[in-house]
Design a protein that fits this description.
Helix 1 runs parallel beside helix 6, helix 7 crosses helix 18 and helix 14 crosses helix 15. By secondary structure, this protein is mainly α. It is built from 18 helices and no strands. The longest helix has 28 residues. The C terminus is likely disordered. About 75% of the residues lie in helices and about 0% in strands.
C-alpha cells in the first residue's frame, strides 16, 4: 500500500488533476498539459498498449485455471502504476469543476459561448501548424470547413441527444481521441456535438447511466477510433491535420453566441471581450508551455 502511494505517483496524480482541469474547458487540451508536464509519451504508450488481448484477458480471469494465469500476465503489461493515479487525478478535477461549469453556462450562456468561440478559434492553429502548407492541404481544410459549416446550418439547434445512449456512447468514443492530439480538446468535440453541458450535468447529478455509457464509449474509442486516428496521423498526418483544422473552423458556427444562445441581449462588445479573453488564454498557456519545456526534455519522463 505504501509503495503504491509513492512520491512519484503522487506527482502523476497532480499532473492528472491539471489534465482534468484542462479537459473541462473547450479549447484547452489535456494532451497539451501532458506534453508540458513531460508525460505525453508515457500516456500515448499506455493508451496504445490497450488492445483486444487485454479485453480477452478479462474473460480469461473469469474462466479460471491456466487461462486466469495467462490473463493476469497479459493485464500486468498495462502500466497501472501510471494510469491509476493519473486517472484518479483527472476524474477528481472533472468532478470538482463540472458543477461550476454547469452553473456558469446556465447563468451566462452567451458569455460562456463567446469565451468558447475564442478558445476554439485560436486552437485551430494547432492542427494548422502541424500540416504542410501545400495547395492540396489548404483545399482539404476548406472543403471540411464548408462541410462542417453546412452541416451545422441544416438545423440551428442540431445536437446529439444525451437521452440517447448511442449518442452518448459516440460522444465518448470521439472525445477520447483528443488524448493523442496536443492542442485539440475532447471538450471541444463535445461542444461541437452538443453534448458538453449535458455530460457535465450528468457528472454533477451522478447520473450513472449516462456516465457509464460515456465511459464505455471512451473504452471502445481507446480500442478502435484512437487506433484509426493514430494510423491516419502516421500515414497521412498533414492531410489529417488539414481535415481537423477545417472541421474546427466550420464548427465555429455551433458556438457562435448569437446562435448557441439565441435569447442573448448582451452587448456585442462585451461578448467580443469574452471571445478575446479565450484567445488570450490559449496564447498565455502557449507562453507558459514554452517557458516550462526544455528543448532536450524527454516526453517519456514522468
Amino acid at each position: 500500500m505504501n509503495q503504491f502511494f509513492s512520491v512519484q505517483r503522487l506527482r502523476v496524480f497532480f499532473k492528472g488533476m491539471a489534465m482534468g482541469a484542462a479537459d473541462v474547458i473547450p479549447g484547452v487540451s489535456g494532451g497539451t498539459v501532458a506534453l508540458i508536464t513531460g508525460i505525453y509519451g508515457t500516456l500515448v504508450g499506455a493508451i496504445t498498449g490497450f488492445n483486444f488481448n487485454k479485453l480477452k484477458a478479462l474473460f480469461w480471469l473469469i474462466k479460471g485455471g491456466e487461462a486466469a494465469e495467462r490473463g493476469r500476465a497479459e493485464l500486468m503489461k498495462i502500466e497501472w502504476g501510471f494510469l491509476i493515479p493519473l486517472g484518479m487525478g483527472i476524474v477528481f478535477s472533472i468532478l470538482v469543476l463540472s458543477k461550476g461549469m454547469v452553473a456558469v453556462m446556465e447563468t451566462y450562456p452567451a458569455h460562456t459561448y463567446a469565451f468558447f468561440f475564442g478558445l476554439i478559434l485560436v486552437s485551430v492553429k494547432y492542427p494548422y501548424n502541424e500540416m504542410s502548407k501545400t495547395l492540396i492541404n489548404h483545399v482539404v481544410m476548406l472543403v471540411f470547413a464548408v462541410l462542417a459549416f453546412g452541416f451545422f446550418s441544416l438545423k440551428a439547434n442540431m445536437a446529439l441527444d444525451v437521452s440517447n445512449p448511442l449518442h452518448v456512447f459516440f460522444g465518448g468514443s470521439v472525445a477520447v481521441c483528443a488524448l493523442i492530439l496536443p492542442g485539440i480538446s475532447g471538450s471541444t468535440f463535445l461542444v461541437i456535438l452538443g453534448l458538453y453541458k449535458p455530460i457535465l450535468e450528468a457528472l454533477h447529478a451522478r447520473d450513472l447511466v449516462v456516465i457509464l455509457t460515456f465511459i464505455s464509449g471512451m473504452a471502445v474509442g481507446l480500442l478502435t477510433f484512437i487506433r484509426v486516428l493514430n494510423w491516419c496521423l502516421s500515414k497521412h498526418k498533414h492531410t489529417t491535420m488539414a481535415a481537423l483544422a477545417g472541421l474546427m473552423l466550420g464548427s465555429l458556427k455551433k458556438v457562435w453566441p448569437y446562435e448557441a444562445a439565441p435569447e442573448v441581449n448582451e452587448s456585442q462588445w462585451i461578448l467580443l471581450g469574452f471571445c478575446a479573453f479565450g484567445v488570450a488564454l490559449i496564447y498565455g498557456l502557449d507562453k507558459v508551455a514554452g517557458s516550462l519545456q526544455s528543448p532536450t526534455r524527454s516526453p517519456n519522463k514522468n
